[in-house]
């Protein structure tokens, strides 16, 4: 009889998943936290496997567990199998060009101030494709986070196997409303209330270095948790913030904000990250081509 017809005598997948987490952490409690299960559920899953194969997978001593030799062997094989299974499922999902969903991870401030106002236009162009927008910044594992695309400011290391499509360069400079500038500043930016964000704590220092005025200090300062809040505070006439394009591109165009001292390149780019060439998937190609059409080169703003 062909081996293809031999019934596989494997423990349930759920039990193997529980064992893998427990073995990786060498802790039933930490495995339970990771999988959102109880300690008892992890213990029962491990006992089920041990009963099936007839050997102990853990040594239990002083409320701690240690892998046996058999447990180490099973951990290696189980980890490889689960990784392969996860990878295959994700590959099928990502390359299913008929899928009506495209999962996009985007930095929160960029998403709120630049991408979301434009998604309506993309929806009109591609009504059959639904964008699942997830807001996150920094490094990302597209496979484990089940994302097709990430849009990022390229200020961190990128995995070598990612495809990087540059969208635009970043320019930055002080931004505020014209009313605030005329009323509180009048050419002396040190008279302003400087708005900071904890997600870009060095923005003002970097700008001062670019201007050769490292010793300049403001009349007052105010700190916010996120870049988006600092820019909104500037728009609400609470002070002056370091704004960057493309995040303030729409505000500058409509004159909700002005950049009275001009803007300079920061040396960073915004880019699209994909695991494969964007043209391999029609969904990714449609979205990336649309994104490229939305971004235009950023130039310094004329000083007042």
From TrEMBL:
The lineage of its organism: Bacteria, Pseudomonadati, Pseudomonadota, Gammaproteobacteria, Oceanospirillales. Residues 11-68 form the HTH lysR-type domain. GO terms for molecular function: DNA-binding transcription factor activity; sequence-specific DNA binding. It comes from Marinomonas arctica. SUPFAM superfamilies: Periplasmic binding protein-like II, Winged helix' DNA-binding domain. Belongs to the LysR transcriptional regulatory family. This is LysR family transcriptional regulator. It holds the Pfam family HTH_1. Transmembrane segments: none annotated. One of its GO terms (biological process) is DNA-templated transcription. Gene3D superfamilies: Periplasmic binding protein-like II (3.40.190.10), Winged helix-like DNA-binding domain superfamily/Winged helix DNA-binding domain (1.10.10.10). Signal peptide: none annotated. Keywords: DNA-binding, Transcription, Transcription regulation.
């Amino acid at each position: 009889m062909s081996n293809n017809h031999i019934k596989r005598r494997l423990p349930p997948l759920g039990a193997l998943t529980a064992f893998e987490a427990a073995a990786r952490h060498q802790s039933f409690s930490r495995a339970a936290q990771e999988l959102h299960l109880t300690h008892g559920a992890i213990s029962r899953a491990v006992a089920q496997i041990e009963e099936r194969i007839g050997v102990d997978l853990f040594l239990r001593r002083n409320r701690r567990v240690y892998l046996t030799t058999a447990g180490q062997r099973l951990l290696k094989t189980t980890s490889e199998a689960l990784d392969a299974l996860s990878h295959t499922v994700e590959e099928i999902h990502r390359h299913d060009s008929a899928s009506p969903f495209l999962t996009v991870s985007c930095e929160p401030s960029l998403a709120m101030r630049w991408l979301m106002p434009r998604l309506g236009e993309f929806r009109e162009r591609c009504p059959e494709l639904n964008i699942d927008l997830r807001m996150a910044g920094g490094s990302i594992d597209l496979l484990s986070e089940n994302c097709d695309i990430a849009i990022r400011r390229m200020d961190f290391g990128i995995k070598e196997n990612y495809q990087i499509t540059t969208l635009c360069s970043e320019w930055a400079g002080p931004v505020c409303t014209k009313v605030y500038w005329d009323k509180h500043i009048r050419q002396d930016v040190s008279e302003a209330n400087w708005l900071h964000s904890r997600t870009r704590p060095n923005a003002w220092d970097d700008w001062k270095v670019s201007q050769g005025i490292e010793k300049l200090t403001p009349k007052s300062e105010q700190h916010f948790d996120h870049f988006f809040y600092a820019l909104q505070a500037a728009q609400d006439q609470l002070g002056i913030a370091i704004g960057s394009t493309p995040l303030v591109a729409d505000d500058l165009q409509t004159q909700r904000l002005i950049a009275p001292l001009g803007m300079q390149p920061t040396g960073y780019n915004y880019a699209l990250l994909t695991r494969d060439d964007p043209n391999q998937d029609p969904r990714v190609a449609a979205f990336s081509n649309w994104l490229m059409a939305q971004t235009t080169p950023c130039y310094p703003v004329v000083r007042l």
